[in-house]
Specification:
This protein is of the alpha/beta class and 421 residues long. The protein has helices at residues 14-21, 44-59, 72-89, 125-128, 146-154, 175-181, 204-213, 216-223, 240-243, 288-291, 297-308, 323-332, 344-356, 367-373, 393-406; strands spanning 33-38, 64-69, 93-97, 102-107, 110-118, 135-139, 162-167, 189-194, 253-259, 266-274, 277-286, 315-318, 337-339, 360-362.
Length: 421
Amino acid sequence: MNPTLPAMPVPFSPKQRKAINWWNAPRTRHLDALICDGAVRSGKTTALSLGFVLWATASFQQQSFAICGKTKTSLRRNLVLPLLSLLKAVGFQVSENIGSGYIEIGLGNRQNRFYYFGGKDEGSAALIQGMTLAGVLFDEVVLMPRSFVEQALARCSVPKSKFWFCCNPAQPSHWFYQEWILKAHEKQALYLHFTMRDNASLTPNIRKRYERLYTGVFYDRYVKGIWTAAQGLIYPMFSPAVHLAELPDHAERYIISCDYGTINPASFGLWCCCEQKWYRIAESYYDARKTGLPRTDEEHYAALVKLAGNRNIEQIIVDPSAASFIACIRRHGVYTVVPAKNDVLSGIHRTADALRNREILFSPACTDTIREFSLYIWDEQAVRDMPVKMNDHAMDDIRYFVATVLDRPKQDAFFVAAVKR
């Protein structure tokens, strides 16, 4: 006999209620899967995860389930902890074993185990291989490799098992869009598209604030919830009239960012902070293809020293793949070197945000930076979002700087749905 499920103490929109209860509704209970996509902060993650646990508790006893995200850390922060807080508030018994990566969730005499997994690369499929599952939830499924997703689906061999998918839109050529969203009927899946208006906790003013945060392809995907190809300029918001500035009278901090290259160009940028804004006051850009003379690490280091001058450089931020150049800088013992954060898409988004908010400004002397801003475009032929690998070296060193120095934890909140209490 199924347990009596508790009433929720928070408001839900009609779309959220449908995502929570589809497995028990006469017209949809026969389906195998739920797919929720759409805008950020649209409430889909909260509804999907809550419905997943309610369904598992009502339908199974002493079974295993999987909750999957890009990484276990982000999954636990963005989905698991808010979900557990809500479940505890309505009377579920919850026991988390962080070391073993699972949660025991019970209600009355029913109890099941929920494992959480990170699907960050092709090797992740091995982590879930061999398990027997009664159901699986994928949060941000478009960020996971297909091999991991399909391995997890293959683990769901328990009768009446179901699949739960959640994501923000990506490119229309993405395999998940092609194989699941366009074929939802064939897959016996219920497809629900969310907008910010489907989040009952968002006020009109908050919705407008999120709408101001994005431009271009990010606006189409994260605000309008459209599966659209990235095309054209990556930073259309860059304007010489807005972003070129005179050098500040004084500086509080100095940092250098580096995109290392031997055959490809190398780009170093000198930044200073003044009154909570960062200015790129000078740069060193060397293209070995034009000169026909590749530089050694020591020659690159000499250019770095020249760029730094007699300033007190707080740190040198370097492309993390440039192991030999990092070793060269450390060997000299003059500067502190920091490997850059190098998630390309999140770095591009954060840089776009910094440009829009005028957190970063540029000296007119940074001519290679100005040139690349007008040439840095999306690769329309790529199967996933990525820039064309040309005219991207100053763009890369700027992205390293922004992602490593300006990155703020609150950026993660743009991509999750949290319950308002």
